[in-house]
């Protein structure tokens, strides 16, 4: 299996996905913005459709359009401060409407189905370069803005008082989310992409550790989820995206069960 070039390409991309998605996801989850990841993952479909229609690289199209939608969400927060769900509905309507209109027009130069469900066969060398570039830039940006983003994640108002440039960092973070989504599309697929952003973080949070330890375990669980999903889906001949989502849920359930069993054993031992 590993002798096939497409599997080597898929594993290369999966490594970047498994590191980048939890790094972005942990800040989304802590800020209770996990549904933004879901909204932007659907927005990426419109970017893919635009890229395919114009004959450009669909990952680049997804990155550009998703970045615009992420910036639009941040812009609309100034008008709908207490209605985040309404903002997401507006952006979702815009992006899904754009995607459906383009796809149904019959003007696409390629099939968009592989991007919806994920496919290990469609990862090209150019995609690998795009993924590596976006992934490295995103991780370096996260490292540079690490402390400011932690402030914002835990208390945005206090961060504002402390002099953190919240609006600017939020716009930058929107672009980082767009980057994480666009690099993950080929393997995971649009429909279940948000699961790779949120579920490894949700699993790591069950360990009840500090921020850094939670981030490390988020990446560990992400690697487990994606690699198991990639290899097992190859042998089952199913789309890797959907199966990876199932693996993510299964790992979360196992951790929850282990936590409950440990708690029960601890209670018995205490008696």
Automatic annotation (TrEMBL):
UniProt topology in membrane: Multi-pass membrane protein
InterPro entries the record matches: ABC_BtuC-like, ABC_TroCD
Subcellular locations according to the entry: Cell membrane; Membrane
Regions crossing the membrane: 6-29, 59-79, 86-108, 128-147, 168-185, 215-236, 242-258
Entry keyword annotation includes Magnesium: no
Cellular component, GO, one term: ATP-binding cassette (ABC) transporter complex
Any single GO BP term: transmembrane transport
Keyword RNA-binding: no
Keywords assigned: Membrane, Transmembrane, Transmembrane helix, Transport
SUPFAM superfamilies: ABC transporter involved in vitamin B12 uptake, BtuC
A Pfam family the protein falls into: ABC-3
Family: Belongs to the ABC-3 integral membrane protein family.
Protein name listed in UniProt: Zinc transport system permease protein
